[in-house]
Amino acid sequence: MTRNAVLIFSIAFIGLPISVTAQGGPGFLFERPDVSIALKSGYSLPTAESDLFASSTEHFTLNRSDFGSPYLGGEFAVRATSRMDVGLNVGWARSRSLSEYRDYHEEIGPSEFVPIEQETTFETVTGALNMKYYLMERGRSIGRFAWVPGGVAPYIGSGVGRVGYKFLQAGDFVDVETCAADSCQIFTDHLETDGNAWLVHASLGADFSIGSRGFLTTEARYTYSRGAVRGAFSGYEAIDLSGLQLLAGIGIRL
Hints:
CATH topology: Porin
Number of helices: 3
Distance between the termini: 39 Å
Structural class: mainly beta
Largest sheet: 8 strands, antiparallel, barrel
Helix content: 10-25%
Strand content: over 45%
Radius of gyration: 23 Å
Order of helices and strands: HHEHEEEEEEEEEEE
């Protein structure tokens, strides 16, 4: 997926429901809600641009798109002002891809070869303190005793937090240092690096009221982060943990 296609999809993903809900949400509350809880899911698109990913796509039958994966997460937010929320969001994503060497095969008989296979897992768990600024009022008060939610509430946001990560390759590998006369040793192993790192993110989204307390939400979020590489992959540069998440979910106001 090209970056332009991702951008176009993000705009459509967020903007498409606006015309449906722009007339306002039905129902009212006796008090303005000050807390919201939302569950979100979608797809995570890592940029996967560090040399650990580059090495994997060079030697194995992997593409950068193979590191994309479904995303599950949630958010707890508290109203700070009429247009600003502060809160906590958490998320989890994991990709698992089977591959084989592009240039090496295992010989099991005269002119008979089988692929040298492995599985690559890339997993992240995130938690961040988040701030969202709504571009218009999220509802209006009627007299002293009623609050009516608006139909649509677009917002921009930013946050800072931590990401735990694991990059794992398990299966059969070629020991290239032993290669001689078109023959190499093959070994079975479990190669892994993990850790945690700081992250920052920025987001663009909108909430769409359903009833007096419920709402649908869509969001495009870009996260920037890099983490140290250790263990079996020592010697590589910092692993690229950045990427785009396209999310949708449902929430409730309390």
